[in-house]
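Please, structure for the following, as tokens.
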Amino acid sequence: MGVIFNQLGQLFLHSLPTVILVFILFIVLDRIFFRPLVATLKKREEATTGATALAREQASAAEVKTREYEEAFQAARQEVYRQREVARRKNLEQRDAALRDAREKADAVILDARTSLANEVARTKSDLDAACQPLAEAIAQTLVGPEPDNRGQERLRF
């Protein structure tokens, strides 16, 4: 057993510089390579997490803006519909007023035409009566004969 411990001691002595070099290498690598790498990874993770959080915030802000835009667009659309309805009603009222005026004018023209026609009919009747009287007397004279003396007899009149 002593031989084994002796061999182990020599092996340890020979491996001590290697162990020291590995330990120094570990310290050097840790300070030069691993710490900056870990710091860079942490910064990258923080930046990614921050960018993700910022993206979520911007997405929620965009959703809010989109809702506001949709509401404003809907309000504008309703305003346009309201204005169209007002214009349509105004045009209907103007059309109805124009139709009423046209009817009133047409009624006035018809009334004037009827009055004029009635006057024309009355004048024509009086002209016909005036023209018929001598004709009637001529026919009566032809049928009855010459008119007797005015000894108390009247002439036939139609």
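The mean pLDDT is 89. The helical segments are 2-144.
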